[in-house]
């Protein structure tokens, strides 16, 4: 069970995942030692992890949502093959256990990047069907966290952490967002390290990049200021009321798409809302306390949105990979 301070700490880390325990303590009106104890407990018992993520558009990438179907006896093998890839995130086993959904990141302009991925999969996975959906615009998710995980701080506390810079529902970028950033090999090493552990100490990051700690600090501050990198958290959503998970594939008339997506981005039940290509042009990830709550949301929450012409619901059976790379031994030291 999460207490009030746990929830406040989770919200604070959404705003600034690299804030020191001293900074967090000032916002939460407790001691740094108390913040440290709660943070370590959340890591051990709630799978909490801070993850540094590059902005795909600003770093020359695009994202695809893949739906892959395999035979029942090989579907899990296919899912694990995707988990092991460094260019995938959010790998789900859905439906009856034969469909895998994953986000793939490819270099900008590689329109058939998902096709290249399929050629690289081992033939033993028994792939039987594929569909690829280009993520065109995200209304909730990535920079904008699920509302049930970021609703514990007052407006003043959020401002103390720089909360006015957060992107709101609808995906509005930061006001000082820079143009596309040219990344060096050291930049890529920096981002890889932060994807493994977003609170890695500057000294640890310096080892991986070959830069001095002062150079790492300056470069990281620049990348954050212009929006090229941001920080999010991974946590077990069940602790926040997300026991039942489902992906929703919706078809909305183009004239109403932006209006509908913007409205859905404010629904407490949705952690992700995005416009995609394909026969269904709007996808969402629903998190509900139980099956009855999901039923009420589908029939009364989404059922009241007349512009939604069709909807397919795919229950999420397992989440095999989330935002960052799969944690491994030798993770860099955490920022205190």
Describe the model.
There is one protein chain. The radius of gyration is 20 Å and the shape is globular. It has 336 residues and is an alpha+beta fold. The longest helix is centred in the N-terminal third of the chain and has 14 residues, at 32-45. It contains eleven helices and ten strands. The chain is 33% helix and 26% strand. It has helices spanning 4-15, 21-28, 32-45, 75-83, 113-120, 155-160, 185-196, 202-209, 213-225, 254-264, 291-301; strands at residues 49-54, 61-70, 88-94, 99-107, 127-140, 229-234, 244-252, 270-276, 282-288, 308-321.
Write the layout of secondary structure elements.
Elements: H1 4-15, H2 21-28, H3 32-45, E1 49-54, E2 61-70, H4 75-83, E3 88-94, E4 99-107, H5 113-120, E5 127-140, H6 155-160, H7 185-196, H8 202-209, H9 213-225, E6 229-234, E7 244-252, H10 254-264, E8 270-276, E9 282-288, H11 291-301, E10 308-321
Helix pairs in contact: 2-3, 7-8, 8-9
């Amino acid at each position: 069970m999460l207490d009030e301070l746990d929830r406040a700490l989770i919200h604070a880390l959404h705003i600034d995942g690299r804030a020191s325990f001293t900074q967090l303590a000032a916002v939460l009106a407790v001691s740094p030692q108390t913040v440290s104890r709660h943070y370590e407990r959340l890591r051990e018992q709630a799978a909490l992890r801070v993850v540094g993520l590059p902005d795909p558009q600003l770093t020359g990438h695009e994202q695809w949502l893949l739906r892959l179907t395999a035979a029942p006896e090989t579907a899990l093998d296919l899912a694990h093959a995707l988990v092991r890839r460094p260019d995938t995130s959010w790998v789900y086993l859905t439906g009856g256990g034969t469909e895998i959904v994953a986000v793939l990141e490819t270099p900008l302009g590689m329109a058939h990047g998902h096709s290249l991925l399929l050629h690289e999969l081992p033939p033993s996975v028994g792939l039987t069907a594929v569909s690829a959906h280009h993520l065109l615009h995200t209304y909730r998710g990535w920079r904008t966290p699920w509302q049930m995980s970021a609703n514990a701080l007052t407006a003043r506390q959020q401002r103390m952490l720089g909360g006015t810079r957060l992107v709101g529902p609808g995906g509005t970028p930061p006001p000082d967002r820079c143009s596309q950033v040219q990344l060096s090999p050291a930049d890529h090493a920096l981002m890889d390290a932060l994807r493994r552990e977003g609170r890695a100490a500057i000294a640890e990051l310096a080892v991986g990049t070959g830069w001095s700690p002062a150079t790492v600090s300056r470069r990281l501050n620049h990348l954050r200021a212009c929006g090229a990198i941001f920080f999010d958290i991974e946590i077990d959503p069940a602790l926040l009321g997300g026991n039942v998970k489902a992906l929703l594939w919706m078809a909305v008339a183009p004239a109403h798409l932006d209006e509908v997506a913007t409205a859905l981005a404010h629904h407490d039940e949705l952690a992700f809302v995005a416009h995609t290509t394909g026969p269904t042009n709007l996808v969402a990830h629903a998190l509900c306390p139980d099956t009855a709550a999901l039923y009420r949301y589908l029939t009364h929450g989404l059922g009241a949105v007349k512009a939604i012409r069709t909807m397919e619901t795919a229950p999420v059976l397992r989440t095999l990979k989330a935002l960052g790379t799969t944690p491994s031994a030798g993770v860099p030291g955490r920022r205190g």
